[in-house]
Protein: ABC transporter permease
Organism: Aphanothece hegewaldii CCALA 016
Amino acid sequence: MDLLESCKMAIATLTANKMRSGLTMLGIIIGNASVIAMIGIGQGAQQLASKEFKNLSPNTLFIVPGSREARNATFDLPKTLVLEDAKAIAKQVPSVIAVAPEINRRELISYRNKTTATQVTGVTPDHMIVRSFEVNKGRFINSIDVDRNKRVVALGSEVANRFFKGQNPIGQQIRIKDISFEIVGVMAEKGSMLGTNQDDSVFIPLTTMAYQLVGKTSPYGIELTWINVAAKDEETVRAAKFQIENLLRLRHKIVDEDDFGVESPKQLLEIFYKITNGLTIMLASIAGISLLVGGIGVMNIMLVSVAERTQEIGLRKAIGAKEQDILAQFLIEAVIVSAAGGTIGIILGVGSVYLIGAISPLTATISPYAILLALGVSSSIGLFFGVIPAQRAAKLDPIVALRSI
């Protein structure tokens, strides 16, 4: 029997039992769709992060608190950086042109009867230089605001639209944690950074944040969330990193592991890639388990099919069909079920990736390698799990089969 004839017979047999064939494919469909979606989402997240980091100047450095072990183990980092560290960097590191310490906290802000939770960031005037922010209306936080702990605020563009759509918010009063602040500026649109919407935030003087909102300081001064630093140019970034690390080790009297980290955008992007790669592989592996379950389902249904078609097998052997013909027939049926399920799963997976891309900031990314891999794996699963039922059918004694007629 030639291959084409075997394929026709297999398709005819499968279409004769549409419900059973469809349920058999279900595990393969879900597995392939999940794998394609997980890989697409992971790659989309990487592309989004790469796009966001391009908005940062290559001469930017981020000083984050906590040891490397602590940063890998928890999101609640210890506050090992203080404002005096930032001031020392600005004064004593010659390769640095601007230092912008930050305190971040999520708080409730309100205007009249409207209330929302948003990111409140305590900053200094250099924040605009280091992080490349721009003002759309009014002004940003200045040195007088910081020195006098003034209750002034610059709104992110989304916050301004939420509270003052079509109105000029400059001079209006909003409340942050039940404290009134005067609006002095509205920022230009900035976009997201590592999944954080920078337009959905407000900026107040760092000292006001420390003394009037956070209310906690270490014995060594005002605790910081992190410190942003701008080196003179891209060529001096390595020198700036080396000098900052040495200065902070001296200030913190470190003899063992650093209680801080100095990272460039490139290093942060590499770390993010490692995290997303790990998560993508883990999630894709979990999704791949359903492919295994689907393969077991294929084998189970094929065994049932062999039992149901004992008489057919006996008749075909009696009129001259060889073991190889019977083996090929059942293997082809298993492969067709798996390949068809894999194709449908790929279509659903690709569709879900584009849907997620349409409703989220993630870029819809479809890897042709992932599609080929998923289709190849699903077809291989059908072949692998179809071997045992096919061998059982091929080894069936025609005399025993014909006795059941």
About this structure: The mean pLDDT is 80. Residues 203 and 392 are 73 Å apart (CA to CA). Residues 265-308 form the longest helix (44 residues). The longest strand covers residues 96-111.
